[in-house]
């Protein structure tokens, strides 16, 4: 974001700062705390985690002195500590949006129901909310954005996450009047629909990763969810259920993403997809009707046309989240948000044969993976959005492996907050 460095320095010179409240001190949260610790005009003043020692360690690794860290569940004590220059850690996620000394809330839990509660509470407290939680966003984000707009606050996804990086490419190309044909991301591991925490345990141990998180990458759910967010933000749709997911290199993208009658793989234009072989980057395939621009693109070594690729070979995940925090606070702008409402859905598919009475165990688990479909297809089939699965969801009937799980197939033993908000969204939007 051009000029952001100077604006943050100016903010600090004025004796002001953007006060950030964080929920979730896992890998993403820790990285964000460390990154912001070296920035001007911004501080993570309070962090919540189920295990407060995670938040404390995140601050210590960011070179915050132990004496400057206060652990408390008391809002009054927390606000006073922040005003005195200290930082706060707590196990109470609900406290973060309620703190007077917090301007922007960030959810970095990756847990759909927790993300739903954090976002809802932030908006109710008139706080900007940055979601490092795409799983919650694709499930209820269209409704949360409407509520945030009405409350006069910003609801946004994060820069650095792949959807945010893709939104930057899309807006850049569209502003310059290029026609955007496809938006996509690379997938850096082979698709394995059967991946589960047990099969991923050894690799997760080596990488110091959460086995369920790793399984959600391998079984494709994370890719589906991320491109779902891009779809809702841009209006682009999956060309086929689950997307094509071809293999290729960056140089292959302009020819792959053409209509079938032109030798490509597409049935239509303005689509979202993923490619095996270009990870960790994101890309936009673009074209133009103007001969003069084609000649200029050739001169600029962008290829022979008529399609060209804009490729960003990196995304820094939570290390870039401060950009979204600053845009929300300084300009009241989102990095990525569901501007087109509910355009696509990531629906739950049986990872194994599911039996009557069996509980669904969540993303990256043993029971279900996600598949991206159009919102119209989800509505017609009454497919269950993947963000709603949890151990409180129980099968009412047998569903064979590989089949979509529908609302008729399940019952909610208890309706979590995300289910209640989703019901509001379906009723009102």
TrEMBL record:
Oxidoreductase DRL-like catalytic domain residues: 160-321
Protein name, entry field: Putative homoserine dehydrogenase-like protein
Species annotation: Desmospora activa DSM 45169
Pfam families linked to this entry: DRL_cat (PF21135), NAD_binding_3 (PF03447)
Domain (Aspartate/homoserine dehydrogenase NAD-binding) ranges: 24-152
GO molecular function: NADP binding; oxidoreductase activity
